[in-house]
Backbone:
């Protein structure tokens, strides 16, 4: 990736020029530690900005479960100069903009989009929220009630229940396996002191990245960020408890619900972000279960007609990774669907992909990556995780495309053999399984071992 | 809206220039009746295209319920030159593109996105799907099973159950009130002959619009469309059974489910697309329940802490319209939440908006509209509905913004008084309501009448 470095009065700019994708990415680091990234898209009418912090649910101990997500809610409740939630949101929504946030296991992102004329106002609100939230006692109590309704809503969605249960099996007893929102019990027990202590550790410029994409100039973004974060300090954060390996053996769980379908999630542990196996895994996922030309879609849906929804998904974290296969099926067809999924897994492990599939998967992943980068948000976010994880030099989209181009059929088969094994696997069923004796975990384990052998 | 017309060898181009939004829209009509719209966005890496037909679930009689949606599935199963679903999808996903479709009550849309070099291939696949599907007997039977799983999945989602029940109350006994997918019973009974007869009536260039946005030139789009649709004829369609007025009186339904939350949907009937009341309704919706600065969000969530999800939504059809207010609440708080929602409705009816709210709502709706148009899909789709409904002259984004700018506080209060009345209202509750005697429909009706009076 071509790269140039220049120095202005107070910061060093690094410019990444990615000819393939057409974007130019500018990167600076402010004296207070904050990374600033911009992607000028001069033809756009809008600007998107995301202020991200290296903190999420995995940084909590069991008692604190849910505090990172509670803080993400609370910063919308008011700041010293914008004392109500209406005061926080109105400057952005009042110009037709969007203001939102999300919490993952490893990151908290505050983001917005506005017509380009209002970019300074958006940055002002984002920095104000994370630097000066009021965090009133009554707001903490109030927001806990709202989050309990958020948890209740997810408990009423069978696919979310299945996904959460699979994560818990993939990371037993570890914060990475918990619902990001915490449980109703842990949320009820959180206090304002928990909130303030947690923020004190993690909320500061040393732990953050501002990324902006749209009709802006990098020098302006740096100047605004510098002015707005001048009083902001600290936030060195701390290292989380490392991910632990999955205990060997197949782990199966059945959760009874009186509903129409059974939601299936089969999961395996893989590798962290930027592990070399990530690239063959991306191609494996594409040809196995991502999209309408994938093996699972063609076999389980098109050939056998067993599911409307069937697909596979990847997630890469700083020291862990997961791949899941998910489907919703008729309770009478659970065994047929499981056998069909296991059969596709066994085939790719035993025989690897065809040469045509390797080409397809490479084109598919490459094309989706480039189409995705047209979105201002994705362009803004591309370098955020890398900067928070201290990656150097930064990987550009072209670097990733080059790595994907080098993947061969044998690499794909090798990662399938390494990760898609029964001893590295969990399975969750959510639905009317209580009255079906053949859907007991021991029997499902036995069948799956046979089908995958 | 500035407009110029020019004629090439076989078609007349109309060019709409919308300076405010920055897009130029080209419109042609082919000799076979097909409308062709393009929005050149020369800086984009991709092209999006949508081929839309004026047909959806409202064009079905009760026995045919679900056939429009079944056809939307079946065209992916193979064509004369692409005999399998893999053959249909692979040309698009094999270059990293997206191919998808959706069916609404009034329209069926086939759409895709590809890197711009592959636009001809995308158009080739889209026209092939709608012009030459194989519609094999076994594909019909097979796809019915998949759609029944799609219906089962929606029956397991409480918010979808509530939304469908509210639509049924808003359009009692009318195809507009039915699930677009039909019921499991009607889908099971559909035959290949139903499919072919329905397609024969509605699938043809006289009933369609092709819209393309991205790195393309209009003359090329017209030439491709003309070549690809040369053999396509007919499809005049027919008029649907008109929407019927909502029988006067408040209609309440409680649906029991053993779940954590109660999903509430309150609905009213409003006006069709392009009725002058649409513009004050857009502002009413914004200030009442759209976004985090709206009255319902600030009162029900921020003030009272009763719901994580609370919002209001508009839908405009060719001869009908609806507004709904939706929330998920703790079963113990249903009455409190309903009273709070009713109180906000009564306030806006009795007192209208504040001058500040009128400004806010106008900026909010204007800004969201402009941000939305950055998306290739929205830009591509802007004129599709209008062309299918025969609107002339076409309304540009600027025309809509001008209409919104003219809305006054008294217009907003007037539409609130006209449509947000108990005699034009339905209410659905889905959740653990069976064991709560105070949640009976008669009692809920009585309370709501009191709160809204």
Residues:
């Amino acid at each position: 990736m071509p790269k140039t470095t220049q120095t202005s009065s107070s910061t060093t700019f690094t410019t990444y020029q990615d000819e393939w994708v057409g974007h130019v990415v500018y990167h600076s680091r402010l004296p207070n530690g904050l990374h600033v990234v911009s992607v000028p898209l001069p033809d756009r009418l809008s600007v998107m900005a995301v202020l991200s912090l290296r903190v999420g649910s995995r940084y909590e101990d069991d008692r604190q479960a849910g505090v990172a997500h509670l803080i993400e809610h609370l910063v919308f409740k008011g700041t010293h100069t914008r004392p109500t939630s209406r005061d926080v949101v109105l400057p952005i929504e009042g110009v037709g903009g969007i203001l939102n946030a999300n919490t993952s296991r490893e990151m908290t992102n505050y983001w917005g989009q506005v017509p380009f004329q209002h970019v300074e106002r958006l940055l002002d609100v984002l920095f104000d929220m994370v630097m000066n939230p009021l965090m009133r006692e009554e707001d903490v109590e109030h927001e806990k009630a709202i989050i309990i309704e958020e948890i209740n809503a997810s408990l009423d969605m069978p696919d979310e229940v299945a996904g959460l249960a699979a994560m818990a099996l993939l990371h037993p007893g570890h914060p990475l396996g918990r619902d990001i929102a915490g449980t109703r019990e842990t949320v009820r027990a959180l206090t304002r002191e928990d909130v303030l202590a947690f923020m004190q550790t993690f909320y500061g410029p040393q732990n953050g990245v501002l990324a902006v994409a749209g009709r802006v100039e990098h020098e302006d973004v740096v100047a605004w960020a510098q002015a707005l974060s001048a009083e902001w300090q600290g936030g060195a954060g701390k290292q989380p408890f490392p991910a632990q390996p999955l205990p060997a053996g197949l782990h199966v769980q059945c959760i009874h619900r009186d509903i129409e379908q059974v939601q299936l999630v089969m999961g395996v542990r893989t590798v962290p972000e930027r592990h070399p196996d990530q690239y063959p895994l991306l191609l494996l996922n594409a040809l196995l279960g991502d999209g309408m030309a994938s093996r699972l879609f063609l076999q389980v849906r098109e050939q056998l007609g067993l599911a409307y929804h069937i697909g596979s998904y990847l997630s890469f974290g700083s020291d862990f990774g997961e791949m899941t296969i998910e489907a919703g099926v008729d309770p009478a067809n659970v065994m047929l669907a499981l056998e069909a999924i296991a059969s596709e897994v066994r085939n790719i492990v035993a025989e690897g992909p065809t040469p045509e599939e390797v080409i397809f998967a490479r084109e598919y992943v490459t094309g989706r990556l480039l189409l995705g980068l047209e979105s201002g948000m994705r362009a803004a976010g591309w370098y955020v995780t890398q900067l928070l994880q201290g990656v150097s030099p930064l990987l550009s989209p072209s670097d990733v495309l080059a790595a994907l181009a080098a993947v061969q059929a044998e690499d794909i088969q090798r990662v399938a053999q390494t990760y898609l094994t029964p001893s590295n696997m969990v399975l969750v069923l959510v639905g009317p399984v209580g009255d079906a004796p053949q859907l007991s975990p021991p029997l499902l384990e036995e069948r799956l071992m046979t089908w995958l052998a």
Q: What stands out?
A: Chain B touches chain A through 68 residues (CB under 8 Å). The radius of gyration of chain B is 23 Å. Chain B has a mean pLDDT of 94. The first helix of chain B runs from residue 67 to 74.
